[in-house]
Every structure is written in structure tokens, then in C-alpha cells.
């Protein structure tokens, strides 16, 4: 396919590019620049024309399942758990006898949150240690 050939783009992509191009032209951008920006936008949003790629062979059901699994793993990580049900940070399961300097910054921030220390999210590790001691 020669460079600049738009034959593999869907009708929807072509309409979108035309609409974007018109919008740029109304704002005073030259015709050539408006066209280039419009197609760059379409390519960025949809990945270009009907290209072969990893997404073509996957069914819609499989894509939905992958998205759901990815979201589940993201929530687990955010909550401090590993996606498979364990605890992400092995150190956070330690007993309270651990000294503050042995704790990670994230552990110190959690401890500061329990004690309602103001400004804890912006503090460095040594500042958190001082605030908690």
C-alpha cells in the first residue's frame, strides 16, 4: 500500500477525518496541515486503517474477559493485595515490633494515615519517621 493511501480506512474513519479537517480549517489552519492533523488524530484514536494485528483474531467475549481480568488485577494491586489473593508487600504482614526505619515509605504512609498525620502523602521517608516518632 503506498504511503497516503486511505483505501483501508472504514467509512466512519473517513467521515471522522473529514469532520476534524473541516474544524481545523475553520480555525485558520491551512488545508494541507488540517488534513495531516485530521488523519493523525484518526490514527491515534483507532490505530489506523483495517490493519492485521493481535486484536483482529480475538473475539469480543475474549476481549471483555481480558478487560475484566485486568480491572480486577488493578483493584487488587491498589488495595495492596497481589492479584492472586495474597498480600503484595510481604513486609506489611510483620508484627508491630518492627522499627520505623525498617519499614518502607508506603508502610510509613499507611501508619501515618492511621494516626491522621497531616501532609503525609508529600513527606519523604525520614520526615514520616520523625512525624510518627
Supply database-style keywords:
5 helices; 133 residues; mainly alpha
* Main sheet: strands, sense, barrel: none
Helix content: 40-55%
Strand content: under 5%
What is the CA-atom radius of gyration, in angstroms?
A: 26 Å
The structure class reads mainly alpha
The coarse silhouette is elongated
Helices, by number, come to 5
* Secondary structure tally: strands: 0
Q: Distance N terminus to C terminus?
A: 68 Å
Mean pLDDT: 79
Enumerate the spans where pLDDT stays under 50 for 5 or more consecutive residues: 90-94
Write the element-wise H/E pattern from the N-terminal end onward. HHHHH
Short overview:
By secondary structure, the chain is mainly α. Helices cover 52% and strands 0% of the residues.
Helix and strand layout, with pairings?
Blueprint: H1 11-26, H2 31-46, H3 60-78, H4 105-114, H5 125-132
Helix pairs in contact: 1-2, 4-5
Domain Rho termination factor-like N-terminal: 100-131
Biased composition (Low complexity): 53-62, 85-101
InterPro entries: Rho-like_N (IPR011112), Rho_N_sf (IPR036269)
Overall description:
52% of the residues lie in helices and 0% in strands. It is an all-alpha fold. Among the domains are: 11-46, no CATH class; 97-133, no CATH class.
Amino acid at each position: 500500500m503506498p504511503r497516503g493511501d486511505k483505501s483501508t480506512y472504514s467509512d466512519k474513519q473517513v467521515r471522522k477525518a473529514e469532520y476534524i479537517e473541516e474544524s481545523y480549517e475553520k480555525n485558520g489552519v491551512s488545508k494541507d496541515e488540517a488534513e495531516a492533523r485530521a488523519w493523525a488524530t484518526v490514527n491515534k484514536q483507532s490505530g489506523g486503517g483495517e490493519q492485521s494485528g493481535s486484536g483482529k483474531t480475538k473475539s469480543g467475549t475474549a476481549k471483555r474477559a481480558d478487560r475484566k481480568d485486568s480491572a480486577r488485577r488493578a483493584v487488587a494491586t491498589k488495595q495492596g493485595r497481589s492479584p492472586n489473593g495474597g498480600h503484595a508487600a510481604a513486609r506489611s504482614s510483620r508484627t508491630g515490633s518492627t522499627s520505623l526505619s525498617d519499614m518502607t515509605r508506603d508502610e510509613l504512609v499507611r501508619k501515618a494515615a492511621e494516626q491522621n498525620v497531616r501532609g503525609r502523602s508529600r513527606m519523604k521517608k525520614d520526615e514520616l519517621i520523625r512525624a510518627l516518632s
